[in-house]
């Protein structure tokens, strides 16, 4: 078994998002990409990426970098994010350098580039994953470790680009199958009542099945709606399904 095949076997067997992400960051670091940001939204519109609290967002960047990059709205103005929203596939950050040289960046985009340069986020590749819906989009930014310039990144990509693309695609597809809570944490009972609603059961049906009172079932549904920040139970079922928090085996 080759090292890349062994890695793919490991990540497809990962049981949690945390395990998957650790395997993936370690693997990318072996190629010289020591800082990653992965983002996925299912609520994209023509003008928005949706509520940030609903994003699946994973990173191993320094918290100081992330606090500014996310907290000050830089992600929405990042040129490579714009590229990822408009394209699928892999893009060298050489494109970004060319855009800067030809002065084709907006003032806000240039501000992001300047901040990244200050934080030594200057060389790398972005992979934008193919979407099956106009509402969904996922991408990952692979930042080369300090000391590796874009010319060296191109050499790495020439030698290993295909394997890197496959590894990132498999990681993305595996992630979509794993429970992810983010900031939306449901209790076991809240998941249970939502699952029965998803099966078409009424509040009275669920009360009988779980040997609870209808009022208690309603309480759990209300708390689930609050936890998921939605107004209706139907929306709660949809969002819980998005985060793979329904019909999940406890491991």
Can you offer a commentary on this structure?
It is a single chain. This protein has helices at residues 3-12, 17-29, 63-71, 74-77, 79-86, 94-101, 107-118, 150-175, 188-198, 203-210, 214-228, 233-242, and strands at 33-41, 56-59, 89-92, 124-129, 137-144. By secondary structure, the protein is an alpha+beta fold. It folds into two domains: 3-175, Transcription factor LuxR-like, autoinducer-binding domain (Beta-Lactamase, 2-Layer Sandwich), CATH 3.30.450; 188-242, Winged helix-like DNA-binding domain superfamily/Winged helix DNA-binding domain (Arc Repressor Mutant, subunit A, Orthogonal Bundle), CATH 1.10.10. It has a five-stranded antiparallel beta sheet, with helices on both faces. A hairpin with a 7-residue loop joins strand 4 (124-129) and strand 5 (137-144). The protein starts with a helix and ends in a 9-residue tail after the last helix. The mean pLDDT is 89.
- Structural domain count: 2
Sketch the topology as an H/E string, one letter per element.
Answer: HHEEHHHEHHEEHHHHH
- Major beta sheet, strand line-up: 2-1-5-4-3
CATH topology of the largest domain: Beta-Lactamase
Q: How many beta-strand elements?
A: 5
Largest sheet: 5 strands, antiparallel
Average pLDDT reading: 89
| Cα radius of gyration in angstroms | 21 Å
Q: Count of helices?
A: 12
The low-pLDDT segments are none
Approximate strand percentage = 5-15%
Name the CATH architecture of the largest domain: 2-Layer Sandwich
* Superfamily (CATH H level) name of the largest domain: Transcription factor LuxR-like, autoinducer-binding domain
Principal-axis shape: elongated
What is the percent of helical residues?
40-55%
Structural class: alpha+beta
Distance between the ends? 28 Å
